[in-house]
């Protein structure tokens, strides 16, 4: 509303059919205003009566949400370079949250791929970071997603039950996992069950977003209010993680 006072809701603004250039300009202004940056440290050094802790928390939460959205979008599109760039921001976050092994292995991975390995090995590894089981344009997944799915069929579904659930049984059955899956798929297709077991409808988030919009309008976390307190103080995990590294 501060950018376009003539519109009282997002629906009215969308109905006006704004052009792409205006949306890009508005998005840039919103990022500069409502996303945590280097200015947050200076803001948090102000006297308590001048601070708005809820507004500060919302800036950091917006930052984390956008970092997750950017990484998810890059991976879904199969953009390997963009994915590697996003990982850089997540390494200190994982470090700050106690996921030291994740942070260490991700750091070592980027260093080895870009500075240690030979060009041929480097290219082979980068081209296999993501996989696309369905072949659709925005359905790329991390390679461990496929590995974990294979582990599910190997260790859980076809690994035996009760006293038969042993390492020897898993080794014995593992070469037949694909045969079992092919047989299951054939049965599903013959009984016309493919639409029930393989494909799910996309989630309808309309009501969720409507309730969220009402809650945001009621609480107004993005409108600064001096001396407003909060039960919790969200820390800047990127700065914290860098201090620990």
- Supply the helix-strand structural class: mainly alpha
Quick one: overall form? extended
Helix and strand element order: HHHHHHHEEHHHHHH
Strand arrangement across the biggest beta sheet: 1-2
- Poorly predicted parts: none
Rg (CA only): 24 Å
The overall pLDDT average reads: 87
| Beta-strand content bin | under 5%
Q: Estimate the helix proportion, in percent.
A: 55-70%
Please summarize the sheet with the most strands: 2 strands, antiparallel
Q: Give the strand tally.
A: 2
User: In whole angstroms, how far apart are the ends?
Assistant: 41 Å
Question: DSSP helix count?
Answer: 13
Description:
The protein has helices at residues 10-15, 20-34, 39-44, 53-76, 80-96, 100-116, 119-126, 143-157, 167-173, 177-190, 194-197, 206-219, 237-244, and strands spanning 130-131, 141-142. It is mostly helical and 245 residues long. Strands 1-2 form a two-stranded antiparallel sheet. Helix 5 packs across helix 13. The longest helix has 24 residues, at 53-76. The radius of gyration is 24 Å and the shape is extended. The chain starts with 9 loop residues before the first helix and ends with a helix. The mean pLDDT is 87.
């Amino acid at each position: 509303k501060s950018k376009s006072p003539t519109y009282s809701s997002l629906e009215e603004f969308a109905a006006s059919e704004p052009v792409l250039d205006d949306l890009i300009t508005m998005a840039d202004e919103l990022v500069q205003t409502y996303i945590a940056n280097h200015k947050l440290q200076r803001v948090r050094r102000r006297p308590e009566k001048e601070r708005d802790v809820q507004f500060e928390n919302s800036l950091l939460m917006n930052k984390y949400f956008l970092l997750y959205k950017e990484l998810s979008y890059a991976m879904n599109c199969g953009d390997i370079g963009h994915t590697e760039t996003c990982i850089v921001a997540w390494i200190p976050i994982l470090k700050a949250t106690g996921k030291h092994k994740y942070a260490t292995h991700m750091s070592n991975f980027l260093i080895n791929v870009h500075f240690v390995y030979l060009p041929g090995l480097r290219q082979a590894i980068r081209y296999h970071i993501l996989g696309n089981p369905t072949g659709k344009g925005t359905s790329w997944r991390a390679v461990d997603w496929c590995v974990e799915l294979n582990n599910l069929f190997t260790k859980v579904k076809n690994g035996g039950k009760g006293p038969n659930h042993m390492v020897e049984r898993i080794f014995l059955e593992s070469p037949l996992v694909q045969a079992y899956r092919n047989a299951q798929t054939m049965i599903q297709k013959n009984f016309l069950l493919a639409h029930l077991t393989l494909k799910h409808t996309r989630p309808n988030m309309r009501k969720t977003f409507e309730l969220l919009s009402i809650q945001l309008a009621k609480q107004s976390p993005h409108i600064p209010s001096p001396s407003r307190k909060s039960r919790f103080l969200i820390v800047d995990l990127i700065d914290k993680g860098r201090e620990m590294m």
